[in-house]
C-alpha cells in the first residue's frame, strides 16, 4: 500500500509540487532586502558573497543529510516523525510541539504582517490597517489550503514562478549591464561603522536559507516519495543557492558597495529601477508581496500535516487528526494553526520576535537530525534495509551540517541569550503535555 493511503492522504503530487514548496517556502523577501545588511555585516563585498556561498554549502549539506534520513524513515509527519523514530517519542513530541504550537503561528503571523505592511505602503494606506490586511492574507491562504491539496500545490507553483522572474532579471542585468563592480571594494570603503563579522554574516544567510525541510511534511501526498522527496530537497536547495548568490553578485555588479549599504532595504529596488524605471520598482513591490504569500502558503501546507501526524499518534487532540472526506486535507489542523496566527496578529506586535526565538530551537532539532543519520546507518546496517538515497561524501556532508547548525546555536546563545532561554522554556513547556498524552494513551 502507498504511504499516503495508509495515512488517509491522496498521493497525487509530483516533483514540481515538491520543488515549488521548497523554493517557495524559502525564498520570501530576504533575497530582496538582506543584501545591504549582509554586506555591511561581512565588511566587504567579497566577504558578503562568500557568506552567501558558505551559508548555501551548509544548507546543501543539511539538505543532503535530511534526504537520507527521510529515505530511512519513510513516514508521514516530516521532521516530527524523523526524530520520533530516531530518539523516541519525547524528542519527537518536543520537535512537533516547538514547530506546531510555538513556531508555526508566530511565523505565519510574522509573514502575513510583513506582506501587509508592504501592501499598505504600496497602496499608501493608513498603517493602522496593517494587522487587518495581515488577517485577510492569512484567511486567504488558509482558505486555499482547505480545498483540494492540488490547489495549494498549484498556488505554490504559480507564486514560485512569479518570484523567480525578478531574480533572473537581477542576475542578468548585473552580469551584462552592471558597471559598478563592487567586488573589489575594500572593507574601509564599504562602511566605517563596523569592522565586519564574517561569522554573523553567515548566520544571517542561514536564516534566509531556512524552511526547505518543510517539504518532508507532504511526503504522504507524493506519488513517488522515495524518488521525489530527496530530489525536491536537493534540486530545490541548489536552485535557492544559485538564486541567492546570483542576485548578490548581480547587485554587487550594478551598484557601488557604499551605495548598497546606504540604500539598505531599497538596494534591490534601485537596481530594478535602473533597469526599468519607476514602474519596475512598483512591479517588484507587487512581486515581493506575491512572493510572501507563496512563503505563507508553504508554511500553511506543511505545519498542519505535522499536527495531523502527531494527533494520529495520540499526542495531540484527536480532532487535529481528521481529514476531510472529499478532499482528504487536514482541515481542522489548518484552521487551528491559521486561527492561532490570526490571534497573534491581532493581539501582539511581537510575532517577529517570537518566530526569531523559535528558530533557535528549530536548529537544535536540525542538529539532532543530522546526528541521526549516523544512528540510522548503524541501526539499519545489518537489517537488509534498502535505501533509495544516501548522502554523498559521507561522513563529511553530515558533519558540515552539524558544524553549521552548532554555529547557529552557539551564536544565538552569545548574541541573544535571553531569547534563546525563553525559546527553550517554551519548548520544555511541552513536557507535561507529552506526559499527559502518554498516560492517556
Automatic annotation (TrEMBL):
<feature type="transmembrane region" description="Helical">
    <location>
        <begin position="154"/>
        <end position="176"/>
    </location>
</feature>
<feature type="transmembrane region" description="Helical">
    <location>
        <begin position="419"/>
        <end position="437"/>
    </location>
</feature>
<feature type="transmembrane region" description="Helical">
    <location>
        <begin position="196"/>
        <end position="217"/>
    </location>
</feature>
<feature type="transmembrane region" description="Helical">
    <location>
        <begin position="329"/>
        <end position="351"/>
    </location>
</feature>
<feature type="transmembrane region" description="Helical">
    <location>
        <begin position="45"/>
        <end position="67"/>
    </location>
</feature>
<feature type="transmembrane region" description="Helical">
    <location>
        <begin position="100"/>
        <end position="123"/>
    </location>
</feature>
<feature type="transmembrane region" description="Helical">
    <location>
        <begin position="229"/>
        <end position="252"/>
    </location>
</feature>
<dbReference type="InterPro" id="IPR002293">
    <property type="entry name" value="AA/rel_permease1"/>
</dbReference>
<feature type="transmembrane region" description="Helical">
    <location>
        <begin position="396"/>
        <end position="413"/>
    </location>
</feature>
<dbReference type="GO" id="GO:0015179">
    <property type="term" value="F:L-amino acid transmembrane transporter activity"/>
</dbReference>
<feature type="transmembrane region" description="Helical">
    <location>
        <begin position="272"/>
        <end position="296"/>
    </location>
</feature>
<dbReference type="GO" id="GO:0016020">
    <property type="term" value="C:membrane"/>
</dbReference>
<feature type="transmembrane region" description="Helical">
    <location>
        <begin position="357"/>
        <end position="376"/>
    </location>
</feature>
<feature type="transmembrane region" description="Helical">
    <location>
        <begin position="129"/>
        <end position="147"/>
    </location>
</feature>
<dbReference type="InterPro" id="IPR050598">
    <property type="entry name" value="AminoAcid_Transporter"/>
</dbReference>
<keyword id="KW-1133">Transmembrane helix</keyword>
<feature type="transmembrane region" description="Helical">
    <location>
        <begin position="12"/>
        <end position="33"/>
    </location>
</feature>
<keyword id="KW-0472">Membrane</keyword>
<protein>
    <recommendedName>
        <fullName>Amino acid permease</fullName>
    </recommendedName>
</protein>
<dbReference type="Pfam" id="PF13520">
    <property type="entry name" value="AA_permease_2"/>
</dbReference>
<keyword id="KW-0812">Transmembrane</keyword>
Amino acid at each position: 500500500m502507498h504511504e499516503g493511503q495508509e495515512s488517509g492522504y491522496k498521493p497525487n503530487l509530483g516533483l514540481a509540487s515538491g520543488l515549488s514548496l521548497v523554493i517557495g517556502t524559502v525564498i520570501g523577501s530576504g533575497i530582496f532586502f538582506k543584501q545591504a545588511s549582509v554586506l555591511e555585516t561581512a565588511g566587504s563585498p567579497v566577504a558578503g558573497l562568500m557568506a552567501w556561498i558558505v551559508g548555501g554549502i551548509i544548507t546543501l549539506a543539511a539538505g543532503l543529510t535530511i534526504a537520507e534520513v527521510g529515505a530511512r524513515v519513510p513516514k508521514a509527519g516530516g521532521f516530527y516523525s524523523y526524530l520520533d523514530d530516531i530518539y523516541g517519542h519525547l524528542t519527537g513530541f518536543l520537535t512537533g510541539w516547538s514547530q506546531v504550537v510555538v513556531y508555526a503561528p508566530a511565523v505565519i503571523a510574522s509573514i502575513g504582517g510583513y506582506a501587509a505592511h508592504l501592501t499598505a505602503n504600496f497602496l499608501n494606506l493608513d498603517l493602522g490597517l496593517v494587522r487587518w490586511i495581515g488577517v485577510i492574507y492569512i484567511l486567504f491562504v488558509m482558505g486555499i489550503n482547505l480545498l483540494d491539496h492540488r490547489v495549494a500545490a498549484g498556488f505554490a507553483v504559480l507564486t514560485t514562478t512569479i518570484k523567480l522572474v525578478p531574480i533572473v532579471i537581477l542576475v542578468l542585468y548585473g552580469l551584462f549591464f552592471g558597471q559598478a563592480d563592487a567586488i573589489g571594494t575594500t572593507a574601509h570603503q564599504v562602511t566605517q561603522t563596523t569592522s565586519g563579522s564574517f561569522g554573523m554574516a553567515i548566520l544571517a544567510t542561514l536564516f534566509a536559507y531556512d524552511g526547505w525541510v518543510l517539504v518532508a511534511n507532504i511526503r504522504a501526498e507524493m506519488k513517488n516519495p522515495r524518488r521525489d522527496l530527496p530530489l525536491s530537497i536537493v534540486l530545490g536547495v541548489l536552485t535557492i543557492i544559485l538564486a541567492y548568490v546570483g542576485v548578490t553578485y548581480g547587485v554587487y555588479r550594478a551598484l557601488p558597495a557604499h551605495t548598497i549599504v546606504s540604500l539598505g532595504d531599497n538596494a534591490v529596488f534601485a537596481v530594478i529601477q535602473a533597469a526599468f524605471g519607476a514602474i519596475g520598482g512598483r512591479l517588484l513591490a507587487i512581486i515581493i508581496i506575491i512572493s510572501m504569500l507563496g512563503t505563507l502558503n508553504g508554511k500553511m501546507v506543511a505545519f498542519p500535516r505535522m499536527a495531523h501526524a502527531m494527533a494520529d499518534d495520540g499526542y495531540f487532540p484527536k480532532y487535529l487528526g481528521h481529514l476531510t472526506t472529499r478532499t482528504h486535507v487536514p482541515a481542522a489542523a489548518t484552521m487551528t494553526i491559521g486561527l492561532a496566527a490570526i490571534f497573534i496578529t491581532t493581539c501582539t506586535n511581537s510575532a517577529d520576535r517570537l518566530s526569531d526565538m523559535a528558530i533557535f530551537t528549530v536548529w537544535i532539532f536540525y542538529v539532532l537530525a543530522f546526528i541521526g543519520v549516523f544512528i540510522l546507518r548503524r541501526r539499519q546496517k545489518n537489517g537488509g534495509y534498502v535505501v533509495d538515497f544516501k548522502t554523498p561524501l559521507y561522513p563529511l556532508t553530515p558533519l558540515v551540517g552539524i558544524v553549521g547548525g552548532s554555529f547557529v546555536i552557539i551564536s544565538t546563545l552569545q548574541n541573544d541569550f535571553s531569547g534563546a532561554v525563553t525559546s527553550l522554556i517554551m519548548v520544555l513547556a511541552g513536557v507535561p503535555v507529552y506526559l499527559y498524552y502518554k498516560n492517556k494513551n
